[in-house]
Design a protein that fits this description.
The chain has about 40 residues and is an all-alpha fold. The chain has one domain (about 1-35). The protein contains three helices and no strands.
């Protein structure tokens, strides 16, 4: 899925910034599919 690649890019780029990573997860909360892939 496109989201899969995008998420991996964000994850690889934001692994160093856990706080920022949490913000991305919260923004992605609107996409249930994203949460299902990355709880």
């Amino acid at each position: 899925m496109v989201y899969n690649r995008v998420l991996r890019v964000f994850i690889d780029s934001d692994l160093n910034h856990l706080d920022h990573f949490e913000q991305i997860l919260r923004r992605s909360a609107n996409h249930t599919s994203l949460i299902a892939l990355y709880p």
